[in-house]
Amino acid sequence: MDLEDLRTFVEVADTGGVAPGARRLGLSKSIVSRRLARLEEALGVQLLSRTTRGSAITEAGATFREHAMRIVAEIDAAQETLSPEGEIRGLLRIAAPLSFGTSQLAPVFAELARRHPQLQVETSYSDRFVDLVSEGFDCAVRLGFLSDSSLIARRIAAFRGRLVASPAYIAAHGTPLTVEDLAHHQAVTKKGEVWQIGDGHKTVTVRPRGRFFADNGEALLAAALAGVGIAALPDFLTDPHIAAGALVPLLADYPVPEAGMFVVRPPGAFPSRKIRVLIDILVEHFGKTD
């Protein structure tokens, strides 16, 4: 039984099909199909049920997947331990947010590649939600508040945001003094966004209203600077503009709760060495606060 056949099966089972498994492995679908057929022949059982709409793991495949995962993980751990001079090899696919990613994370990822010449680093920058498993990513860097999921998260650092508006907006619409006042103001937000705002010993949920929506922080920042409405944005975007007088912080007595930077990865007993060195370099640059 070939190790690469096992690894291929695990990737196909995790990603939900031959095509996404092939993308994650960087192989053609024909090679992946041949490996799966060879493994099924060696085992004498059908691991995947193939249809015109994709592949589904069989009951036998689900049982075998757990054993195959452990075997592949043990072999990978042994290879990493024996790797000469601690070299880290292979492909690390990272999903990252667009604004913060290109401005703040890109130099860190470049330094990661410089330190590990045998490591391939592939990064996708987008503010859309990325399904790590089905799209074949090893991990993602995410900002904000994590919703409950099956993903495993490692917190890297904390950051804060604030409500801001331009002087022109305030001159035209006035300054909100309480959380309740926000109901009478225009907001620039992501579609369906809600604001969590501290009010004494409790947190209040605000559903802002407005006519300008974007899925990118830089776009929302541009709208706030133009006077379109109030925005809730992270400090790393707003601080330079507050210092220049182009934005005014609002509701200082009603803070936005502390958010975080996280590395999230699919479920597994231990992170791979590739992900561990990514976490280490992010902590080095951004500082872990918990």
Question: What's the gyration radius in Å?
Answer: 23 Å
Return the structural class: alpha/beta
Distance between the termini: 45 Å
Mean pLDDT: 87
Gross morphology:
elongated
**Main β sheet profile:** 5 strands, mixed
Question: Would you kindly provide a written description of the structure presented here, covering whatever features stand out?
Answer:
The two termini are 45 Å apart. The protein is α/β, with parallel strands linked by helices. Strands 4-3-5-14-6 form a five-stranded mixed beta sheet, covered by helices on one side. A three-stranded antiparallel beta sheet has the order 12-7-13. The chain has three domains: 3-82, Arc Repressor Mutant, subunit A; 85-159 and 260-286, Periplasmic binding protein-like II (D-Maltodextrin-Binding Protein, domain 2), CATH 3.40.190; 161-256, Periplasmic binding protein-like II (D-Maltodextrin-Binding Protein, domain 2, 3-Layer(aba) Sandwich). 42% of the residues lie in helices and 24% in strands. The radius of gyration is 23 Å and the shape is elongated. Strand 1 (48-51) and strand 2 form a beta hairpin.
